[in-house]
């Protein structure tokens, strides 16, 4: 048995659509660019990922609670956060092809080319210069750097570039029943601000003591200049964020703690260590004094999956100034001089992971094509090697044949397991084809009911990854499979 070379993104996209994981949105109308729908199996996998993250945050940590804030927020929220004035991407067009690009992504692509050519120092220098220019808002310098590096348009093959302009990524709309009286509001571009404006509500109602965290899962919206690479970069996406409120001066220790904790989570759900790495930011966001990405090696290279940021007191301080309402915490704990820490605006360490990017990383990692058998019996086998706790279905119940009472027995077994974990029943086609169907959607266990079952109440469990089979009593199924597919198997590895 041997595993074949890595697959392409097109293989992933094709499999996701064919087996009910991800569909292009409104496809019958030729779709909408960079918007996707999760199918019947995709929504289960995504929900399982979100549940694992939620439990890892709120169940494993006594000092982290969750909220669900509104998508619509007062427009001054985004003024205070800096999004109105500074939530921009550098945009550049090629005059010959009329194709639009993000200037920073062009330069990052060139840096990746240098890396692939064995010139890591050249790549590092290019990224550092790009970071310096963007930090200084020297857009003409960014254009000159693109030209100096001889970066060409992928369509026209020319370097005939326009000037670089800033493009605000927020979607705007109006609220109000009459257009003339309506107010401009925004679809939230991130979920973090819903946490910040509820900081004191949660702290006081929950009697929370610093350090404590607030977690949230929710939709966000960004009018991306270049949306690409399947569900990696979309205009409507879902974030899983946790803001951890701490004493000023302790932020770097907590920053390091959350870096390692979040890396453990990704390994616990089955992502291999060699496909994960930290990438420190060359250019820090306006709110951060430290920032790092956890990157995963997608078919198109290492890309950001999660960000850990030390946001200082930027957000709460700005909301306090603009709202004129104090966002302070009274700390009654004693310092080294025996005095209470008193009132202060907490600092924040943020962990922010894209649910869609985590889904894509998990799906890419699980997609497995291997050669089985030898000689004339050699063939390719495709399956999704998902962590059992994440699989859309945990078990499939399959009668060997539909006669002699086997189907009824199998149906009864399936019904007895449904209250414990998600189970499917399948009696169509030969048993080998049914195994293949379950492999392709990642079902970890197939339970086969045969004639021996009718005699001694035992069944055969077929394991997805190894294709090995074992005989088990029906009375043991719920406990045996239930243990393997429980989210606790993920949590205990963090």
UniProtKB/TrEMBL annotation:
* Reaction equations catalysed: tRNA(Gly) + glycine + ATP = glycyl-tRNA(Gly) + AMP + diphosphate
Its domain of life?
Answer: Bacteria
State the signal peptide span: none
Under Enzyme Commission nomenclature, its number is: 6.1.1.14
Localization per Swiss-Prot or TrEMBL: Cytoplasm
Example GO biological process: diadenosine tetraphosphate biosynthetic process
Tell me the subunit arrangement.
Answer: Homodimer.
Q: Please report which protein family the annotation says this sequence is part of.
A: Belongs to the class-II aminoacyl-tRNA synthetase family.
**UniProt-listed NCBIfam families:** glyS_dimeric (TIGR00389), PRK04173.1 (NF003211)
Task: Please give the function described in this protein's UniProt entry.
Answer: Catalyzes the attachment of glycine to tRNA(Gly).
Q: What is this protein called?
A: Glycine--tRNA ligase
**Gene name linked to the record:** glyQS
């Amino acid at each position: 048995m041997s595993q074949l070379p890595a697959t392409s993104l097109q293989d992933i996209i094709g499999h996701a659509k064919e087996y009910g994981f991800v569909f292009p949105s409104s496809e019958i109308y030729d779709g909408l660019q960079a918007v996707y729908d999760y199918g019947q199996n995709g929504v289960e996998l995504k929900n399982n990922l979100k549940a694992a993250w939620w439990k890892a945050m709120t169940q494993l940590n006594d000092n982290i609670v969750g909220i669900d804030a509104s998508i619509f927020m007062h427009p001054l929220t985004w003024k205070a956060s800096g999004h109105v004035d500074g939530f921009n991407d550098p945009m550049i067009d090629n005059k010959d092809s009329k194709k639009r690009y993000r200037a920073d992504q062009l330069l990052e692509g060139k840096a990746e080319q240098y890396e692939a050519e064995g010139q890591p120092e050249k790549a590092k220098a290019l990224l550092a210069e790009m970071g310096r220019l963007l930090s200084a808002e020297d857009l003409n310098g960014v254009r000159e750097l693109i030209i100096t590096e001889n970066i060409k348009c992928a369509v026209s093959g020319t370097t005939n570039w326009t000037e670089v302009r800033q493009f605000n990524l927020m979607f705007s709309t109006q609220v109000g029943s009459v257009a003339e009286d309506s107010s401009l509001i925004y679809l939230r571009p991130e979920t973090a601000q819903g946490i910040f404006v509820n900081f004191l509500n949660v702290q006081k109602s929950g009697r929370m003591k610093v350090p404590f965290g607030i977690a949230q899962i929710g939709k966000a919206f960004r009018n991306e200049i270049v949306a690409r690479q399947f569900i990696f970069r979309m205009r409507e996406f879902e974030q899983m964020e946790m803001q951890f409120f701490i004493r000023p001066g302790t932020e770097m220790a907590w920053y390091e703690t959350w870096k390692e904790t979040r890396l453990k989570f990704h390994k616990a759900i089955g992502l291999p260590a060699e496909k994960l790495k930290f990438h420190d930011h060359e250019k820090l966001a306006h709110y951060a004094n430290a920032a790092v990405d956890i990157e995963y090696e997608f078919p198109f290279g290492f890309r950001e999956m999660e960000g850990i940021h030390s946001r200082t007191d930027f957000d709460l301080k700005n909301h306090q100034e603009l709202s004129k309402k104090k966002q302070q915490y009274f700390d009654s704990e004693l310092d080294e001089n025996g005095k209470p820490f008193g009132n202060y605006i907490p600092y924040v360490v943020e962990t922010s992971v894209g649910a869609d990017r985590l889904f894509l990383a998990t799906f890419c990692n699980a997609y497995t094509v291997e050669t089985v058998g030898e000689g004339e019996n050699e063939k390719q086998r495709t399956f999704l090697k998902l962590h059992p706790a994440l699989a859309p279905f945990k078990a499939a119940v399959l009668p060997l044949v539909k006669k002699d009472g086997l189907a009824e027995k199998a149906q009864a077994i399936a019904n007895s397991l449904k209250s414990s974990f998600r189970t499917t029943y399948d009696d169509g086609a030969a048993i080998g084809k049914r195994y293949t169907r379950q492999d392709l959607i990642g079902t970890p266990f197939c339970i086969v009911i045969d004639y021996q079952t009718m005699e001694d109440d035992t069944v055969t469990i077929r394991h997805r990854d190894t294709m090995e089979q074992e005989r088990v009593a029906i009375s043991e199924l719920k406990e045996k499979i239930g243990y393997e597919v429980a989210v606790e198997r993920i949590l205990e590895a963090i």
